[in-house]
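User: Can you write out an input/output pair for a complex, sequences first and structure second?

Assistant: Here is one pair. Inputs:
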Amino acid sequence: MPDTKEQELAQIREKLKGLLVSHLSLEGVDPKNIKDDEVLFGEGLGLDSLDAVEIVVLLQRNWGLEVRDMNQGKKIFYSVDTLARYIQENVKK
Amino acid sequence: MYINGIGIVFNRGRGVAVLRQALSEGWRPPEGGYPRVYRVSDEAIRDRSISKDLRRTDRFSRMAAAAAVDAAVDGGLSRGIQGSTGLIVATGFGPHATTFKFLDDMLAYRQSEVSPTTFSHSVHNAAASYISLVLQIHGPTLTLTRFNSAFYEALLTAQSWLAEKKVSYVLVGAVDECGPVFEHIAGRKLTMSGEGRIKPFAFSPSAEAVPGEGAVFFLLSAEQAAGYPGIADFSGNGMETSADSNVLAADGFIGDETAYKRFAAGPAMSFAALFGTMPGQLAFSLAAGAVIVKTRLVPHPDFTHGEYESGCRRSVDCIALGCRGDVRRIRISF
C-alpha cells in the first residue's frame, strides 16, 4: 500500500501509461516516456475519438469507473495526470 | 485476365523475392515447439509506411494489408485509378482469433466493458476495409468466406468484374490466420505431422497437416503487364489437365488426398510443405506457379514429383480438391 496520496497517484499514473500503450496499441511508445501532463488527444500523444471510447472501457475494466458525461470527459481525458486524479478521487476503496 | 502484381506474406517473410528464394531453398521445419505451426513473424508485417493506418488492426488484417499493398506496388497501381479498382478478400476462417477474443471478453467482462475496437475487427470485412483505406480504393469491395474454394470463387468474381468493365483492376487475395482456435481444431480434426512436414506426394488417405498462415494478393487486369502470366482458364470439377505441370494444393486439410494422384501422372509440384495447411492454399499455389512461369525458376526437388525436368514451364495448372471430391483448377500460362 502506498504511504501517501502522492505515492498512490504516482502508482495510478504508471499503471495508466502502461495500459494506454498496450490497450491502444501505441507502437513505438515507451510508457516511461509519456509525461504526466502530456496532452492525450490531438497534439501530444495524438489519440482520437476511437481511443476515447477505448479509454472509457479501460476505466470500467480496471477501476470500475464509468464516464457518461462527455463534457466531463473532456476535462478528465485531458492528460494522464487528470485521468489519474479522476481515478484516485472516484474509485471505491 | 492477367496478373499484374503479386504480394505475399508467409512464414519465410514477405515479398516475391523472398518467395523466389524459398522456392529454391526447399523445405524447412517450422520454428518453435509443438504444435508445429508455420507462423508469420511480427517483423514481416511491421510496416512503417502504413503503420499509422493500421495501428488498431489485428494480425489478420495486418497480414492482408501488407500483402495487398505489396501486390499494388508490384503491379504499379498508381494513384488516381483507385476508383476503378475493385477489392476481393477470400478467407477460410476470417479473423477468428479476434472473434474468439471478443467472445472471451464477453464472458470475462460485462457487456459495457468489451472493447468496441475488438468487435469491429472481429467482423470478416475488417481486412478489406483496412486495405481500401490504406490504398484509397473506392471501387467495389467484397469479402468471401468459405472453408473451401473461397479464393477460387473470388477469382471468378474478379473475372466477371473485369469482363463487365465494372473496374479496370481487381486486387484479389486470400488470407488466413493460425489462431489458438484453429490450432485446437486442427489438433482434433486433422492428422498432425509429428515432424512438421506436409507430404503432398504421399497421396495418403489420411494426409498429415501442419497449420500455416499468411496472405497473398494479386493485382489483376484485362491487360498483360509486368511479365506475369495470365489466368487462362478456370474449371470447377474439370478433370482435364494439359498444362506443362500441375501444382497440387495438397496440404492435409481435406484428409484423404488419394484423388490428387491422378494429377501427378506428369510433372507435378506442391508447395504446401512451404506454406503450411490452410484454406487459402490454392492462392499460394497460384503465386508460386506464377513466379515459376515468369522467372523460369526450377523449384527445389523438395517441392517436385515425378519426372520434373528443368526447363521452361509456359503453363501450369493449380489444382485443389474439396472435401467432397470437387476439383478446382486454375490455369496460368503465357
